[in-house]
Specification:
CATH architecture: Roll
Number of domains: 1
Structural class: alpha+beta
CATH class: Mainly Beta
Largest sheet: 8 strands, antiparallel
Number of strands: 10
Shape: globular
Order of helices and strands: EHEEEEHEHHEEEHE
Distance between the termini: 5 Å
CATH topology: Pnp Oxidase, Chain A
Low-confidence stretches: none
């Protein structure tokens, strides 16, 4: 394991994010993993921040609302099968860890786990949440919400960044 600065591999992470990443969250005894394809890394409020988006209809959303943190794992190895499964099945119905042979590993600085794989891991403490307000959406962006299933943005302070 190698400790990194939050921006050391940010450019590569954003390119790889197009192929998917794992978002993991723990709320009490419940743990879930889902696939994300959108995120943002930067500095907000003088803090290093990773922002993720979760649709309110997702099982993960309910956990994120109760959690104080989350983790993002961006695989360096091919995890397309697992990412596909985690992006098309709900943790309400199946144990995605078991179905995909994924191993949850304790986060370095947070309650939520990361995924054991060669990759980049971000441990994030939730700073702020903001639900998408459709009246402020540009028409080009509104097309992503034909059913009105909007995202909530979760701004997470990056408290650890490391590569395995």
């Amino acid at each position: 394991m190698r400790e990194l600065g939050f921006a050391d591999k940010a450019a590569e992470a954003m390119v790889r994010l197009a192929n998917g990443a794992f978002l993991t969250v723990r709320a009490g005894d419940a743990v879930n993993v889902m696939t994300i394809g959108w995120a943002q890394i930067g500095v907000i409020w003088g803090k290093e921040v990773l922002t993720v988006m979760v649709r309110d209809s997702r099982y993960t959303f309910g956990l994120m609302e109760k959690a104080s943190d989350f983790a993002v794992t961006i695989p360096w190895e091919d995890k397309s099968k697992e990412l596909g499964y985690c992006g098309s099945h709900s943790g309400r119905d199946v144990d995605k860890f078991a179905q995909c042979g994924l191993e949850a590993v304790a986060g370095r600085e947070i309650q939520s786990p990361t995924i054991r794989c060669k990759g980049l891991h971000y441990d994030c403490r939730i700073l702020f949440k903001s639900r998408t307000d459709p009246k402020f959406l540009d028409a080009g962006v509104a097309k992503f919400y034909p059913k009105g299933d909007y995202h909530t943005f979760f701004f997470g302070e990056i408290v650890a960044c490391y590569e395995t």
